[in-house]
Amino acid sequence: MLAKKRIALVAHDFRKMDLVGWVEYNWRSLLKHDLVCTGTTGRLVSETIERKRATEGGASAPKSNIKLLKSGPLGGDQQLGAMIAEGTVDAVIFFWDPMSPQPHDVDVKALLRIAVVYNIPMACNRSTADFMISSPLFDRAYEPIVKDYSAYIQRKVEKEEEA
User: Fold this and answer.
1) What is the DSSP string of 4-67?
2) Which domains, and CATH codes, for the chain?
3) 41 close to 12: Cβ distance less than 8 angstroms
4) Which of 38-47, 52-61, 142-151 has the lowest mean pLDDT?
5) Catalytic-residue membership of 97
6) CA 48, 37, 23, 103 torsion-angle sign
7) 3-class SS at 137?
8) Of 30, 43, 67, 162, which residue is 20 to 30 A from 79 by alpha carbon distance?
9) What is the pLDDT of residues 69-85, one digit of tens each?
10) How wide is the angle at C-alpha 109 spanned by C-alphas 106 and 112, nearest 5°?
11) Nearest to residue 124, comparing CAs of 102, 101, 147, 91?
């Protein structure tokens, strides 16, 4: 992954304001990267960054580059998972709500799983997001080691052929 990364920002309903607060604090660092957001979260992130640019950034602050996906329950989580599998997302910051059942829990679980499969840095709470954004690797080129699953796939194919 390059020094300029594509970072996914996602938040469940009861965690959106937590993510907005985090974005308000880290907006300057986030402007150095391309962002991808699901649904309403993307609108809130965009409004927050533009408000901070207008009040604190002046003309020298770069404009934000945010790609908006669908809302999570309407397929945004799946869109994001596909982007991870295609290698077009470098990190995920997902403020998920562990206390509320989600109508799309299976999609959320699939998203978390695919991020682990592709060894994508992922923060699911503010503390981890703080550690991630303050890492020296956040603004540097970095090559993650992706596990080779070819032996697993071959065993699975062989088992299916035997059946």
Assistant:
1) S-EEEEEE-GGGHHHHHHHHHHHHHHHTTSEEEEEHHHHHHHHHHHHHHIIIIIGGGSPPP-EE
2) 6-162 (3.40.50.1380)
3) no
4) 52-61
5) no
6) positive
7) helix
8) 30
9) 999 888 899 999 999 99
10) 150
11) 91
From 13, 34, 77, 130, active-site residue: 77
Which residues, 6+ apart, have CB-to-CB distance to 98 below 8 Å?
none
- 127-163 pLDDT, tens digit per residue, is 999 999 999 999 999 998 888 888 887 887 777 777 6
Question: Helices (H), strands (E): how many in the chain?
Answer: 6, 5
81-127 per-position pLDDT tens digit: 999 999 999 999 999 888 877 777 888 889 999 999 999 999 999 99
Q: How far apart are CA 119 and CA 146, in angstroms?
A: 6
Cα-based distances in Å from 102 to 10, 52, 75: 14, 31, 13
Q: DSSP state, 94? A: E
Structure tokens at 73: 């329950």
Query: Distance (Å, rounded) from C-alpha 90 to C-alpha 143?
Result: 10
Q: Which residue has the tokens 């890492």?
A: 135
Per-residue confidence (pLDDT) for residue 59, from 0 to 100: 61
Amino acid identity of 105? D
